[in-house]
Amino acid sequence: MAPKLLSWLEAGLVSGKLVSGQAILRAPLKPKQFPFAAQQGVLAAQFELADSTIKFAPDWPAAVIAGQFAMRNGSLRGHTLRGQIADNQITAAAFELMISKRLSSSSS
Question: Which residue range(s) make up the domain with 17?
């Protein structure tokens, strides 16, 4: 795993509860293959989180969320059922994030 990603995961995923989840990996385990733009593999997961605290950036307030999420190769989609960022309540939100380049395990 790329050092910058590992560092963000360690600092950003503060706490939470995995309610349910499943994952599939079908691919040759070779470095620098993800996100499988050439269709040579599949990395997919579906999961539900509850009471999860996420710190997106050091100078941002933490978010407390509950929702359903799906990842497939280079995309992450989510539907937040409820949450809070600072004093702002979230009643419903949806998002999609795309990884547009290969992840590298070397630091830059």
Answer: 3-27+42-98
